[in-house]
Specification:
Shape: globular
Largest sheet: 9 strands, mixed
Bound molecules: adenosine-5'-diphosphate-glucose
Strand content: 15-25%
Distance between the termini: 15 Å
Strand order of the largest sheet: 5-4-1-6-7-8-11-10-9
Helix content: 40-55%
Length: 463
């Protein structure tokens, strides 16, 4: 793997304040980049989350931190507003309507400029050619802003969410500015080739640029596009899945749910994740199969997310209402409730114990850039020698790799309900064989391979 120094720039710094001080935070991106960032010189630039005392380093993440401060008004307009109420729904195929507001957009530009200033001021001793690696949809103007300040710097961008079809993206009032912002990079990368093609087609349609295969040239600067799905540290999940800590948690959970088959879902509480649709499919199943009412438990773990945004608060209320309705309708006297609901983050060993517990794991997003949870499930199950089944939405990036899951269309409630039934009826041998196949693929294409491919692409393009 190339040992080029890396400056990662993401919306949030990868740290959080806990009762025992500052620590590396949990979550997809941090887990993915931690080993890479620790293996070479570099730094991480990101919003300080409103804290004024972010240290230059934290004990469990050996990376130099460069905090960016934002005012409360900026957080509201840039993060809750433009990023999460304009871009997020638009890029997830408008499964919720998007709101466009000029003041939010102007703040987005101001905040991207702030990030550019902080990044450009950063000088890494002995590593003048560090890759400036911009992450995700909060910072789409940054590549161009960095290019103006550091014309010769290698700049790459990775989008963690889908790139929508050109006709959807075209609704954005500031569509050209966003495209020009991204085209400041040398390499722009996506999880899947479909998102990459959508991006290239969007540029071809909206900009005066030249498109040739995977490259786009505008104003004399050529940008290469690439596709590679992010992944997990599969070995670390395998180790943890068979650790004493997880085995103990699992034994406790198995006792709690003994005599029942367990279905489970683990998501950020987000309208893109299809949690309501999944619950409706379960309700439908329990309606038409009374024999299952005392034999199934569905555990939904939902991490609180974006509570400052109205749509997310409303979704939480709706989910809690549907769960109340299902439990009210189907709890049989003398038996446990059919739906267990945890509205909280769960420590990783416990999360993995839930993965191992689940006979059927439901990942049913209406749209998801990739979806790491599905990869974590198959690897944990296979490592533990379990025989679970994965029901996976075809509208996730992960469905292209995990094609041996039971694929479903989450908009088709009957279809999801049938998929759950099929998963329950599938033989243990077939479930094991499918799991082993999927886990093998995730092990081969782990997060280190993803990173290696990203860096190779940058090296190839820059020569
Ligand atoms: P997310 O939308 O957050 O990520 P996902 O890819 O599933 O979705 O990552 C969630 C991460 O949070 C997982 O690593 C999981 O272990 C963790 N997590 C989930 N529930 C948890 C809980 N209750 N407690 C603790 N941890 C929990 C965005 C995009 C995705 C893309 C990723 C990475 O929306 O499409 O896959 O970035 O690019």
């Amino acid at each position: 793997m190339s040992d080029r120094a890396i400056v990662t720039i993401s919306n949030r710094l990868p740290v959080a304040k806990t009762s025992s001080g500052w620590r590396a935070s949990a979550g997809g991106l941090v887990t993915a980049l931690k080993p890479v960032m620790e293996s070479r010189p570099g730094a991480w630039v990101g919003w300080d989350g409103g804290a004024e005392d972010v240290p230059a380093k934290v004990p469990d993440l050996s990376v130099r931190l460069r905090p960016v401060s934002l005012s409360r008004a900026e957080v509201n307009a840039f993060y809750h507003g433009f990023s999460n109420r304009s871009i997020w729904p638009l890029f997830h195929d408008l499964v919720q309507p998007a709101t466009f507001d000029r003041a939010w957009w102007e703040n987005y530009r101001v905040v991207n400029e702030r990030f550019a200033g902080e990044t450009a001021r950063l000088r890494l001793r002995g590593a003048p050619d560090a890759l400036l690696w911009v992450q995700d949809y909060h910072l789409m103007l940054l590549p161009q802003m960095l290019r103006r300040r550091r014309p010769d710097a290698p700049i790459a961008f990775f989008l963690h969410i889908p790139w929508p079809a050109p006709e959807l993206f075209s609704r954005l009032p500031w569509r050209e500015e966003i495209l020009r912002g991204l085209l400041g990079a040398d390499v722009v990368s996506f999880h899947t080739d479909r998102y990459r093609k959508n991006f290239v087609r969007t540029c071809g349609r909206l900009l005066d640029c030249e498109v040739s295969g995977r490259t786009i040239t505008m104003d004399g600067h050529t940008v290469s596009t690439s596709a590679c799905p992010i992944s997990i540290d599969a070995k670390a999940f395998e180790r943890l899945a068979t650790s004493d800590e997880v085995e103990n948690e699992l034994a406790r959970l198995r006792k709690q749910f003994s005599g029942r088959r367990v279905l489970a879902g683990v998501d950020r509480l987000d309208y893109t994740k299809g949690i309501l649709e999944r619950l409706e499919a379960l309700e439908q199943l329990l309606e038409r199969r009374p024999d299952l009412r005392t034999k199934l438990t569905f555990v939904q773990i939902a991490v609180p997310s974006r509570g400052a945004v109205r749509e997310y608060r409303e979704l939480r209320t709706q989910i809690e209402q549907v769960i109340g309705r299902i439990n009210g309708r189907f709890t049989e006297p003398g038996h446990d409730v059919p739906v267990y609901y945890l509205h909280r983050g769960v420590p990783l060993p416990r999360l993995i114990a839930y993965y191992r517990l689940a006979d059927v794991f439901l990942v049913t997003p209406l749209k998801d850039g990739l979806n790491l949870v599905s990869k974590e499930y198959v690897v944990s199950q296979a490592a533990g020698g379990d025989a679970g089944a994965l029901v996976l939405s075809e509208f996730t990036g992960a469905a292209l790799e995990l094609e041996r899951a039971i694929l479903c269309n989450p908009f088709d409630i009957d279809g999801v309900s049938n998929a759950i039934e099929r998963a329950l009826e599938m033989s243990a041998d077939e479930r094991r064989e499918r799991l082993a196949d999927m886990a093998k693929r995730v092990r081969r294409n782990d997060v280190f391979r993803w990173l290696d491919r990203q860096l190779r692409e940058v090296d190839r393009v820059l020569g």
